[in-house]
Amino acid sequence: MEIRRINNKLFWMLLAAAVAAATNYVEAQTTDCFYVFGDSLSDDGNNNLLPTLAKYNYPPYGVDFPSGATGRATNGRTVPDYLSQFIGLPFIPPFANTTGSDVLKGVDYASGAAGILFETGKQMGDDISMDAQITNHGVTIATVIPKLGGVEATKNYLKKCLYYVNIGSNDYLNNYFLPQYYPSSHIYNLTQFADVLISNYSRQLRALHAAGARKFALVSLGSIGCVPAVIIAANVSNGCVQDINTAASIFNDKLRVLVDQLNSDFSADSSFIIVNSTAIFSLNPNFLGFKIQNASCCKTVASTGLCVANGTPCEDRNEYVFWDGFHTTEAVNEIFAESAYNASNPDFTYPNNIARLLSSSPSNTNE
Ligand SMILES: *[C@@H]1O[C@H](CO)[C@@H](O)[C@H](O)[C@H]1NC(C)=O
Ligand SMILES: *[C@@H]1O[C@H](CO)[C@@H](O)[C@H](O)[C@H]1NC(C)=O
Ligand SMILES: *[C@@H]1O[C@H](CO)[C@@H](O)[C@H](O)[C@H]1NC(C)=O
Ligand SMILES: *[C@@H]1O[C@H](CO)[C@@H](O)[C@H](O)[C@H]1NC(C)=O
Ligand SMILES: *[C@@H]1O[C@H](CO)[C@@H](O)[C@H](O)[C@H]1NC(C)=O
Ligand SMILES: *[C@@H]1O[C@H](CO)[C@@H](O)[C@H](O)[C@H]1NC(C)=O
Ligand SMILES: *[C@@H]1O[C@H](CO)[C@@H](O)[C@H](O)[C@H]1NC(C)=O
């Protein structure tokens, strides 16, 4: 009797565990494909062969990455790298080199120094602007249409893919706030400039939608006035450059309005979410553990904020928020990606997190 009761209990415990495992499995396997757009925070090799100063394909970049310096602007994995792992996909190849990779699983089009506007970042050399990244995605689509058996089959495939876009920081740091190179701050005030960016971004996202994209995760701008290179350039002794953070928050407020608009315009078939960088950095308690919040781990070149080639980086990389003058460490990227993917705090993403974005059905993704 007693044994039987225990067995019963064990049975229910095992059943509960099996259900939990099955649920987790479904949650983790929610898409077959992942397309990435953006700047150096997401680049994984697209700038390696471009004539530009915005390159990071030399040591100590990649010191903690399995294959070393690949053209990722950090010591290890980027946020998209972590998201790929959570989704159950391999690392997504850069558009610049998809040799040996299955582009049906995804392509990364992101390019360091790039922005929403074509001219952004060009004082450093070439970059692949958002419009050019969308053109490159069209090239990928053209190659998969015959593999999938036609345009309709391809659209059916793409509607389930995750489209991740993190762009806009350089339109401020490598355009608006460099008046010696760019006229934008003479032409527009911050409200007007954010309107120019958002209207171009809206056009770009609608172009991706027209090409078949249906599930969008858009990353809002972080506190770009607090990165070490900006603090050093502005000669701020403690704290952040407030004007630049204000600019980012004006953009972010308008991004939220854009997302509401897109979700309403495409309510029948699409879903757009915001990954709220400000909320994640200010509210995730895991960030409190980082000892050094305002200095870079590697020694940087003053003019670019990038690591000095072959320099020895700090040893305690998990204690630093910043790897170089602009980019976060792998440790930060992991926490950020988890917060975006399936953290429970509803402030981190709006209106859904990435796991829910992916598990919703493509024909009616608004919940
Ligand atoms: C998603 O959330 C669950 C429950 O909080 C957690 O066990 C799991 O590790 C998370 N998955 C990822 C990829 O973070
Ligand atoms: C392109 O990618 C393949 C597979 O990852 C790699 O073996 C090769 O070295 C890369 N080529 C260049 C020029 O980076
Ligand atoms: C920018 O100019 C417009 C029109 O003059 C004005 O309404 C707006 O408040 C200004 N924005 C900022 C941030 O100064
Ligand atoms: C995009 O930005 C440019 C300024 O670079 C502006 O002239 C143009 O009107 C914007 N395009 C859209 C569709 O808003
Ligand atoms: C930076 O600020 C300090 C005082 O806050 C001042 O002494 C120094 O001259 C400034 N340096 C530059 C390059 O402006
Ligand atoms: C960095 O933060 C430390 C501790 O909060 C502070 O003492 C230091 O002045 C800051 N440095 C800069 C350059 O902001
Ligand atoms: C991001 O989160 C902050 C803090 O919770 C909030 O004030 C802001 O409105 C949010 N921004 C967006 C674009 O959702």
UniProtKB/TrEMBL annotation:
Hey, what's the signal peptide range on this chain?
A: 1-28
Q: Please give the start and end residues of each transmembrane region.
A: none
Main localisation: secreted
Q: Which GO terms describe its cellular component?
A: extracellular region
What processes in GO biological process is this protein linked to?
Answer: lipid catabolic process
Q: Where in the cell is it found?
A: Secreted
**Highest taxon listed in the record's lineage:** Eukaryota
Q: Which UniProt keywords apply?
A: Hydrolase, Lipid degradation, Lipid metabolism, Secreted, Signal
Q: Which GO terms describe its molecular function?
A: hydrolase activity, acting on ester bonds
The record's similarity note reads: Belongs to the 'GDSL' lipolytic enzyme family.
Per its record, how is this protein called by name? GDSL esterase/lipase
- Natural source organism: Acacia crassicarpa
